[in-house]
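lol ok so funny story. i was supposed to be doing the assay writeup but got distracted and ended up predicting the structure for this chain instead. priorities right. anyway since i did it might as well share w the group, maybe its usefull for someone
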Amino acid sequence: MLAYVIRRAVAGVIMLIVMSIVTFALFFASPIDQASFICGKNCSPAQKQQTAAAMGYDDSFINQWWDFAEGVVKGRDYPDDPKLRETAPETIVHCEAPCMGYSRERGDTVTNLIKDTFPVSFSLAVAAFILWIAGGVLLGVTAALKKGSIIDRGLVGLSLIAYAFPTFFVGLILYKFVAIKWGLADIPRYTSIADGGVGGWLSSLALPAITLAVFFMAGYVRMTRSYVIESFQEDYVRTARSKGLPERTVTFKHALRAALTPIVTMAGLDFAGLMGGAIITESVFNYPGMGKLAVRASQDFDLPTTVGLVILLAAFVIAANIIVDLLYAVIDPRVRLG
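and the output, tada:
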């Protein structure tokens, strides 16, 4: 298993390198002049040239990517100008490894920007993940056990309705009615554990997490129901029932365990995707997460921030795939990694 993890990790590093090259190539091929975009409308040609030289935009595509890769490994100074380092060292910003770049628009390193926004997106993703997994699997198993009954039809119908509502609509409804009109919850504003304790942190995540969980939970209810019903038709489930095992044991130890394999796959990928930032939810509730940072970076043509977020999201997806593959061997003994 260790050899398998090492092979997957090496393949993941290669994939991250390829993704960084592709992202750089897309920005490099864009007709927008990055130096002019940063310098502004009233920028003179000399100022534009100075900005391009300071940010390294006057170099070739290969040199720009190589400087980025070198910064990830060893760190980098911005602007990387030896003369300026001697004459005005106070204007130099040093970015420690792993350095994802320097955002001229926000006056800070991409690493610091991610450090500031990562806790928000991580907290929101974890809270929503717990809600939709617990609710989706539990309601899906209930629907499977009551197949054909009014409970089954009701749960499937409600899940279809919930799945049809877009995230921004659910978020706005919760914000306007639950928080503002009815006053059942505080106005959502992210509070860290250090500032508000565990209670304040959980309270600040309640409405945004429910907004995300409603959409995902609806899909997991139907998916869990389908896979559990399919597992009930397997021979090993019939054998377990013929042995006189309690229905609870048959359902959770045999049928649900087999149904968990595809559910774990989807859960891992969905969670990894949320780690890149729930853009719509963070925008509705004005949460300063990585999703909102990604929107601003794309609007400002902020190449360093965009590349850093793309690589971080890709790393989460790759790590999630490796973890899911390892969980396969735990959930299903028939699976062997080699």
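The chain has a mean pLDDT of 87. The radius of gyration is 25 Å.
back to the writeup now i swear
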